[in-house]
Each structure stands twice: as structure tokens, then as C-alpha cells.
């Protein structure tokens, strides 16, 4: 059983609520007490399962204030109605458990995504606060030496950040090489004219 969902069970027959059925004078309306009030998804799964099967003895069934209420002949309850209703309850519990697990997994994924984003933002903030100078201020191929009193940059918080940093350095190097080549070509063109 998943921690995110607690099964709903039939716990009692409320004899005091039993009334004459409106369907037929020989029938009764019975109230099966549930272990707790079902939510909308559970009720939808319950009725979805019932709609997938045909039972000739069914006359009317609804969920009301923590009860499954149905019209029946008392002689048919043990052999037809209880097994039929219990099958629908089991199905609704299983589907609700799956739904709760899917929601928990989605929530966990969203939490992980948020943590990764927070780490990336923290690393970006650290780089910005570290005062990295703009690459355009240094068009030569060699990066400027860091000032002596500046502490070394903090290690990357995750492999994603490390990979990002390596790619950034690679692109920075490519940019500087392309800029230097463009400058040389421009000077060469100017000298030839």
C-alpha cells in the first residue's frame, strides 16, 4: 500500500438508514458505510469500473456522504451486489493508488528540477559576484590572469554545472580565436588596400 493513498473499504451496513426502495415495493435501499469519504477521483474510478461491466441485478447505485447506496432485493445482496460492489471498490483503490504514486513522482521531479535550477542560479550568482570581466574586453587568445588577492572560484555544485562550465570555456576559446582571426584578416585587407 502506498503512503500517499489509504484504501477505502466497506466497514458496515447502516441498518438504521435502510429504507423502502423507490424502484419497487419489494426492494430496499441499503447504505454501506465506507472507511472514509471518497474523493472525486476515487468515485470516478469506481463508476468507470462499473460502467465497464453489465450486471442484470443492478437497479441503482450512488455514493453519498461516505456511503455506497444501492437498491436491491435483500436475497441478492450476498451473491450479487456485494461481490459486484467490492470489485469496483478494489479497482477504484488500485487506480487511486496509481494516481497518488504518479502525483508523488511528478512532485518529486518538480522538486528536483527546482533544486537544480536553484543550484544553477547560485553558481551564476557566484560567478557574477566574483567579478568576471566581459570576454569582449580581452580579444587576445590568452585569458587575463586573476588578481592575486582573489580567492579561487568555488567548485561546481553538480556535474551539470561542471559540464556547463567546460562548454562555456570551450565556446569562449573558440570566440577568441575567431575574433583574433577576424582582426588579422581585417588588418590584412586594410594593408592590401
Report a brief summary of the structure:
The protein has about 190 residues and is of the alpha+beta class.
User: Structural class, judged by helices and strands?
Assistant: alpha+beta
CATH class of the largest domain: Alpha Beta
Biggest beta sheet attributes: 5 strands, antiparallel
How many helix segments?
Answer: 3
Shape: rod-shaped
CATH topology of the largest domain: Gyrase A, domain 2
Low-confidence spans: 134-139
Strand segment count: 5
CA distance, first residue to last residue = 82 Å
Estimated helix fraction: 40-55%
Query: What proportion of the residues form beta strands (DSSP E)?
Result: 5-15%
Radius of gyration: 35 Å
Question: Average pLDDT value?
Answer: 83
Salient structural properties:
5-stranded antiparallel sheet; 193 residues; Gyrase A, domain 2; alpha+beta; 5 strands
Outline the structure in words.
The protein folds into 2 domains: 10-107, Gyrase A, domain 2 (2-Layer Sandwich), CATH 3.30.1360; 130-192, no CATH class. The chain is 51% helix and 12% strand. The protein contains 3 helices and 5 strands; from the N terminus they run βββαββαα. The chain has helices at residues 40-51, 77-129, 159-192; strands spanning 10-13, 19-20, 28-34, 61-64, 67-72. Strands 1, 2, 3, 4 and 5 form a 5-stranded antiparallel sheet that branches. The chain is rod-shaped.
Amino acid at each position: 500500500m502506498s503512503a500517499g493513498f489509504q484504501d477505502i473499504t466497506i466497514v458496515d451496513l447502516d441498518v438504521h438508514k435502510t429504507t423502502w426502495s423507490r424502484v419497487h415495493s419489494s426492494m430496499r435501499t441499503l447504505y454501506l458505510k465506507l472507511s472514509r469519504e471518497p474523493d472525486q477521483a476515487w468515485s470516478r474510478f469506481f463508476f468507470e469500473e462499473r460502467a465497464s461491466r453489465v450486471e442484470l441485478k443492478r437497479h441503482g447505485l450512488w455514493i453519498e456522504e461516505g456511503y455506497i447506496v444501492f437498491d436491491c432485493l435483500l436475497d441478492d445482496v450476498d451473491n450479487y451486489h456485494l461481490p459486484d460492489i467490492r470489485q469496483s471498490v478494489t479497482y477504484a483503490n488500485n487506480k487511486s493508488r496509481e494516481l497518488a504514486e504518479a502525483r508523488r513522482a511528478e512532485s518529486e521531479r518538480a522538486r528536483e528540477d527546482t533544486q537544480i535550477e536553484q543550484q544553477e542560479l547560485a553558481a551564476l550568482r557566484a560567478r557574477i559576484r566574483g567579478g568576471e570581466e566581459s570576454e569582449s574586453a580581452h580579444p587576445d587568445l590568452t585569458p587575463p590572469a586573476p588578481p592575486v588577492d582573489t580567492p579561487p572560484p568555488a567548485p561546481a555544485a553538480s556535474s551539470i554545472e561542471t559540464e556547463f562550465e567546460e562548454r562555456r570555456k570551450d565556446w569562449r576559446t573558440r570566440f577568441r580565436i575567431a575574433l583574433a582571426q577576424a582582426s588579422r584578416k581585417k588588418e590584412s585587407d586594410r594593408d592590401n588596400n
